[in-house]
């Protein structure tokens, strides 16, 4: 942007720095996204900045040029632009290769990784319960993906087909358009606003009623036996939305949705353990019969509620 508007002439010392910073932006966004998605940031994550550090060392001679030398270089560059003598096609093929591999491939790789991370998070029970605000992160990343596709289709078109001028403002207009659209979505769509700030609220009496309806439905239909039961499907079954149901469970039982459902599964598992008919069942089999997807989740949830392991509980009835 500062090159296109020529503000770089007021601070020529910053010439070339944008290239290295490009390599640092996506690793930084990756780490921020991990924190937003409640993932642990570990020591090895610093390796994401290795391309940035190596490229900075590689271009050190360019960075150490005097401000006057950089200014003269910029003046010559803009003179060629103004004369129409410089277009994307005029750049050498090795520049195109370096530009594409270093600065164009890296964003695409991170975009794919982040979209997968966000998708995986939203598919978990925690994501289904708290994921509305996180969806804005996915919208933002998709915006970058669209921008990446448009901008570099134009670049490829200008390099191989039509000699588009480098000072063509189309990519910058797309950036401005994306920022405008995301801002409008943020202002007009209340789904992305944290629940505490949404004007339309359910009062406590209604929330207690929703919690009771959910509990009655779970018990009567035994939907807790479905390992794929989630906040959205249950809220749809009792004709409410996931925000209200989540808030109702928190208000009524002081626990989250996952713990709420697991309580029913644990009670059912206890009945199976006490039943002689299931005496030969392994704890893993009982866990699956009760709606748990894994034995580890079963053990953890059981001990959290009963203050003892399933094995210890089973021994009480086998002794």
Automatic annotation (TrEMBL):
<feature type="transmembrane region" description="Helical">
    <location>
        <begin position="14"/>
        <end position="32"/>
    </location>
</feature>
<keyword id="KW-0238">DNA-binding</keyword>
<dbReference type="InterPro" id="IPR018060">
    <property type="entry name" value="HTH_AraC"/>
</dbReference>
<keyword id="KW-0805">Transcription regulation</keyword>
<keyword id="KW-1133">Transmembrane helix</keyword>
<dbReference type="GO" id="GO:0003700">
    <property type="term" value="F:DNA-binding transcription factor activity"/>
</dbReference>
<dbReference type="Pfam" id="PF12833">
    <property type="entry name" value="HTH_18"/>
</dbReference>
<feature type="transmembrane region" description="Helical">
    <location>
        <begin position="139"/>
        <end position="162"/>
    </location>
</feature>
<dbReference type="GO" id="GO:0043565">
    <property type="term" value="F:sequence-specific DNA binding"/>
</dbReference>
<protein>
    <submittedName>
        <fullName>AraC family transcriptional regulator</fullName>
    </submittedName>
</protein>
<feature type="transmembrane region" description="Helical">
    <location>
        <begin position="44"/>
        <end position="61"/>
    </location>
</feature>
<dbReference type="InterPro" id="IPR009057">
    <property type="entry name" value="Homeodomain-like_sf"/>
</dbReference>
<keyword id="KW-0804">Transcription</keyword>
<keyword id="KW-0472">Membrane</keyword>
<feature type="domain" description="HTH araC/xylS-type">
    <location>
        <begin position="212"/>
        <end position="316"/>
    </location>
</feature>
<feature type="transmembrane region" description="Helical">
    <location>
        <begin position="100"/>
        <end position="118"/>
    </location>
</feature>
<keyword id="KW-0812">Transmembrane</keyword>
């Amino acid at each position: 942007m500062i090159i296109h508007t020529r503000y770089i002439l007021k601070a020529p010392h910053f010439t070339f720095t944008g290239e290295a910073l490009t390599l640092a932006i996506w690793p930084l966004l990756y780490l921020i996204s991990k924190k937003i998605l409640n993932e642990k940031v570990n020591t090895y994550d610093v390796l994401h900045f290795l391309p940035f550090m190596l490229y900075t060392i590689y271009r050190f001679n360019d960075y150490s040029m005097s401000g006057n030398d950089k200014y003269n270089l910029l003046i010559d560059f803009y003179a060629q632009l103004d004369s129409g003598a410089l277009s994307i096609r005029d750049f050498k093929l090795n520049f195109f290769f370096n530009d594409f591999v270093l600065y164009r491939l890296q964003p695409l790789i991170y975009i794919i990784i982040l979209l997968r991370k966000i998708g995986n998070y939203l598919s978990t029970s925690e994501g289904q319960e708290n994921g509305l605000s996180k969806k804005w992160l996915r919208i933002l990343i998709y915006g970058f993906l669209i921008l990446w596709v448009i901008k570099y289709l134009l670049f490829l078109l200008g390099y191989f087909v039509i000699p588009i001028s480098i000072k063509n403002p189309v990519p910058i207009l797309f950036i401005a358009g994306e920022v405008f659209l995301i801002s409008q979505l943020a202002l007009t769509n209340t789904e992305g606003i944290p629940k505490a700030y949404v004007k339309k609220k359910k009062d406590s009496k209604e929330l207690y009623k929703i919690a009771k309806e959910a509990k009655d439905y779970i018990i009567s239909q035994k939907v807790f036996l479905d390992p794929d039961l989630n906040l959205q499907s249950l809220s749809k079954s009792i004709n409410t939305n996931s925000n209200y149901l989540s808030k109702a469970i928190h208000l009524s039982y002081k626990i989250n949705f996952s713990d709420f459902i697991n309580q029913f599964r644990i009670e059912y598992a206890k009945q199976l353990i006490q039943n002689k008919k299931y005496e030969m069942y392994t704890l893993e089999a009982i866990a699956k019969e009760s709606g748990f997807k894994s034995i580890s989740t079963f053990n953890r949830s059981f001990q959290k509620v009963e203050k003892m392991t399933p094995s210890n509980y089973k021994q009480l009835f086998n002794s």
